[in-house]
Specification:
It contains 17 helices and 15 strands. It has 409 residues and is α/β, with parallel strands linked by helices. It starts with 8 loop residues before the first helix and ends with a strand.
Length: 409
């Protein structure tokens, strides 16, 4: 099946010219190794490859890291490097001696554990990137652009991106964005996600947490999926999985460490003292959410009780991916005060806050932007707002409030 080009490719090559080591984290099957192997082929310098999924290689990396690096000299791609944190110190020594740009390309699918090793040994020597599953722009072959509420940029995008109907958008939401599914390499969606959960997640979960009740953990993941795009409720998650709240917090940390979920934190400052502090929960892949919550088709998902939450999860994850793929951090929040007044997303950039409302409608009403004025009490200037929705074309209520179809993100 054809390789789907990743928006991060140029950033990888750019950083490799300046940093001796490059570490790409992200969930399993997101395409980290496939992308780096494709880039290595274009380099034409004979970059080696070794995976620490291979138990023999892992044993050597752990017990004799110096010999391991003598056998696998840079330039080299080391896959799943989290299995041998002992390597980091020896990579540091090699980097300091050789000063070879792009010598080490590393991947790992256990983010927090990796970060500790990197911070201790390779601080200042390694460029860090996070690769999520495919964005809709990558799948459609549309040029990359970190999302911004810029009228001219959006107008230009509206002229080159083919419009997508609501049923087509929910097909994207339901099918998901894992490369194996998007490329057609794995045509059986149900089989893919069943295998993904049992083989990859369960194995990595055990690696991170030791003994774990697989059935309870599966109930926990399903409960989390059913509560996507909602405020995190540890008591409800714990009750659904028949575990205590402390375990629920630990298991959510694991899902975040594996790159499957992320938390969107509320925006607050000294002026906005009535805002809540609880984050909202999102999955990087809505296909996994639909599988876990048993939506049998895109049509059923679009008509079902979770349709609004699925659209919001999809939209927020696409916003986040647009920045990750550019090697940038998205300064993205949401607003909710104790009177339950809410703005779905706030994008902070250039000293401004850009309010975003996400709605499952093709004909948005201007009343949807009435909460945008709440952020005028913030020290930051209020930027252009937008309603992200199912409209068929880019439009505007006025100069300060745009109407942006979700398929344009």
């Amino acid at each position: 099946m054809p390789y789907i080009a990743r928006h991060m490719e140029q950033k990888v090559l750019e950083l490799s010219r300046f940093f001796p080591a490059l570490l790409i984290t992200g969930p399993r099957q997101a395409g980290k190794t496939t992308m780096l192997k494709a880039l290595a082929g274009r380099e034409g310098i004979g970059r080696g490859y070794v995976s620490l999924d291979d138990l023999n290689e892992r044993d050597m990396a752990r017990n004799d890291p110096k010999l391991f690096l003598q056998l696998h000299r840079p330039p080299v791609l080391i896959d799943e490097v989290q299995y041998a944190p002992e390597l980091f110190t020896y990579i540091k020594i090699h980097v300091d001696e050789q000063q070879l740009p792009g010598g080490f390309w590393l991947t790992g699918s256990q983010i927090y554990r990796l970060m500790r090793g990197v911070q201790e040994s390779l601080a200042g020597r390694v460029a860090l990137l996070h690769l999520s599953p495919l964005s809709q722009r990558e799948i459609a072959g549309i040029p990359p652009r970190p999302f911004s509420v810029d009228f001219e940029a959006l107008l230009q995008d509206s002229r080159v991106i083919p419009p997508v109907s609501a049923p087509q958008l929910y097909e994207r939401i339901w099918k998901g964005c894992m490369p194996a599914l998007a490329s057609g390499a794995q045509p059986e969606r149900e089989i893919f996600y069943a295998s993904y959960l049992s083989t990859y997640i369960e194995r990595d979960v055990r690696e991170l947490s030791g003994g774990i009740d697989a059935l309870k953990f599966n109930r926990f993941v399903t409960s989390a999926a059913a509560r996507c795009a909602q405020l995190v409720n540890f008591s409800a998650l714990a009750e659904d999985a028949d575990i205590n709240v402390q375990t629920a917090k630990a298991w959510l940390d694991i899902l975040e460490a594996l790159g499957l979920v992320f938390l969107l934190h509320p925006y607050s400052n000294n002026v906005l003292k009535r805002t809540i502090r609880t984050p909202k929960l999102y999955f990087y892949d809505t296909g996994l959410v639909c599988y876990l919550t048993r939506w049998s088709s895109a049509e059923v998902a679009e008509a079902g009780a979770m349709s609004g939450a699925l659209l919001e999860n999809f939209t927020v994850s696409e916003l986040v991916k647009s920045y990750q793929n550019a090697g940038a951090s998205p300064y993205l929040y949401f607003y909710r005060d104790r009177d339950a007044r809410e703005i779905d997303a706030l994008l902070e950039a250039d000293g401004k806050l850009f309010p975003l409302e996400i709605k499952k409608t093709a004909t948005p009403d201007k009343r949807l932007v009435r909460n945008f004025d709440m952020i005028e009490r913030s020290p930051l200037e209020r930027g252009t707002g937008a309603v992200l929705c199912l409209a068929q074309s880019f439009s505007a209520f006025d100069r300060e409030n745009l109407i942006v179809p979700v398929w344009m993100i």
